[in-house]
Amino acid sequence: MRILVLGGGGREHAIVKALARSPRRPELFCAPGNPGIALEAACLPETDPTDVPAVVRAAADHAIDLVVVGPEAPLVAGVVDALEAAGIPAFGPTRDAARLEGSKTFAKQAMDEVGIPTGSFAVLRDRDEALREIASASFPVVLKADGLAAGKGVLICPTEAEAREAVEVFFTERRFGETEVVLEEFLEGEELSLLALCDGEVAIPLAPAQDYKRIGDGDTGPNTGGMGSYSPVPTVGDADLAELSATVHQPIVDLMARRGHPFHGVLYAGLMMTASGPKVLEYNTRFGDPETQAVLPRLRSDLVDLLSAACRPGGLAALREADPAGRAVEFSPEWAVTVVLASAGYPASSSKGDLIEGLRDAADSAEVVHAGTAERDGEIYTAGGRVLNLTGLGPDAAAARQRAYDAAEAIRFDGKQMRSDIAERAVRRSE
Ligand code: AMP
Ligand code: GLY
Predict the structure, then answer these.
(1) Which of the listed residues 247, 248, 292, 306 has the most CB atoms within 10 Å of its CB?
(2) What number does the ligand 2 atom closest to the CA of 286 have?
(3) Collapsing DSSP states into helix, strand and coil, what is residue 114?
(4) Which of 274, 251, 277 is nearest to 196 (CA)?
């Protein structure tokens, strides 16, 4: 079987590693890939995953049997639709189904329609409407750009003055393009990332994970793409997981099927565990980054089987029925902790071209995943904001965390940034 993974970050490296563990021994390709991925898959550095015709050509040229889409941009650009039209199975939602991530107003209206718990909201279409709504809001409020903004389109406004400033950012500066804006109630609690594999009919949850969005220890400083993660999450047991998934995933899968846009791929619910119960902050329509780096190393089931099954209507339900234990996905009880190393200046900017040392030593204690690296004359250099992810595995949170940090300490490059408190709370809770 020949599988092409689209993307070139840490998430895609973790997906490639998990596919490489399959007993089916698939032949792996990755576009564009990165120097870490190149150790396990044939990289196609010239193929841009958002260039839909180029992806279809590459898949046809390499006689690919399954394409696995990592990032959101190719989904929203319709890469799955084009691959399917060319007769090539692809893991991921079609453009219409990917609107759950591509448009916040679409997602909020979908949640509203099927009664999924989420913050109260209003859709703002212009500056006057926005100022009127803000005048009667209670603070803090959250303002969100409708479209994709790489995690930067969410502004939390503690006061009316800040909300008015945010309105200018959206409607006068148009920093996020000509877009609708969602005004949302501010929710407090712990965040939880709950991903499910979907086959157009059923949603089967993966192990829960916790993500660390802020750059600084103690959740301080600006938001990033994610500075670390861990799995499992001790406060979410198997029964809670099934109930949560039945509340936040299945009704969306049912709705999309009724609308004639069946959802295939990963449905990722970003939840806030509030005092009045879990509420959905957002949906993503792909694997989380860096949650995937902590979740997939714990997966015992064959990822190739799961992703292939998700492309067929009812394919996952059939896998589940064929399993004597009645489940399609099985996870190891061990812990995984992922620490992200970022380059100098991240998240405002990122430094490139700094020599990375210690990769071999790091691999002694953890899985080394490349997120933003480049190779030159056999040496590895930084090439992006998030550079490397180190995933430690162990029988408990403390052991996994120790391995991740041993590896993170072994890596050296100028301006290296990391948080020192990833999974600290999980260790304290399990003591
Ligand atoms: P989103 O892209 O909607 O997930 O927002 C990015 C991040 O902003 C979330 O992971 C939260 O940390 C924060 N956030 C979004 N919506 C809210 C909200 N209603 N209340 C509090 N924080 C929020
Ligand atoms: N970890 C957040 C995301 O993947 O969107």
Answers:
(1) 292
(2) 4
(3) helix
(4) 251
Instruction: For domain 2-94, give the fold.
Output: Rossmann fold (3.40.50)
Does the beta carbon of 289 sit less than 6 angstroms from any atom of ligand 2?
yes
The residue whose CB lies within 8 Å of the most ligand 1 atoms, and thus the one to mutate among 142, 184, 227, 281, is: 281
For ligand 2, atom 5: residue with the closest CA: 288
Looking at ligand 2, which residue's alpha carbon is closest to its atom 3? 288
Give the amino acid at 94. Answer: T
Tokens of 271: 């939840």
- Choose one of 291, 295, 338, 419 to mutate for the ligand 2 pocket test, by most ligand atoms within 8 angstroms of C-beta: 291
Cα separations in angstroms, 427 against 30, 194, 263, 298, 423: 36, 20, 36, 18, 6
- Contact status, residue 369 vs residue 390, Cβ threshold 8 Å: yes
Is 211's C-beta closer than 6 angstroms to any atom of ligand 2? yes
Give the domain ranges of the chain: 2-94, 120-185, 190-322, 335-430
144 Cβ closer than 6 Å to some ligand 1 atom: yes
CATH 2.40.128.110 fits 335-430, yes or no: no
Ligand located closest to 193 CA: 2
Instruction: Report the top-level CATH class of 190-322.
Output: alpha beta
| Domain covering 120-185, topology | Dna Ligase; domain 1 (3.30.1490)
- Closest ligand 2 atom to 288 CA: 4
How many Å lie between the centroid of ligand 1 and the Cα of residue 144?
A: 9
- 142 C-beta closer than 6 A to ligand 1: yes
Residue 267: Cβ within 10 Å count: 28
CA separation for the pair 309, 315 (Å, rounded)? 4
Ligand nearest to the CA of 283: 1
Q: Please list the pLDDT of the chain residue by residue as tens digits (431 residues).
A: 999 999 999 999 999 999 999 999 999 999 999 999 999 999 999 999 999 999 999 999 999 999 999 999 999 999 999 999 999 999 999 999 999 999 999 999 999 999 999 999 999 999 999 999 999 999 999 999 888 877 678 889 999 999 999 999 888 888 887 678 999 999 999 999 999 999 999 999 999 999 999 999 999 998 898 999 999 999 899 889 999 999 999 999 999 999 999 999 999 999 999 999 999 999 999 999 999 999 999 999 999 999 999 999 999 999 999 988 888 899 999 999 999 999 999 999 888 999 999 999 999 999 999 999 999 999 999 999 999 999 999 999 999 999 999 999 999 999 999 999 999 999 998 87
User: From the alpha carbon of 144, which atom of ligand 1 is closest?
Assistant: 3
Cut 0.90: pTM above it: yes
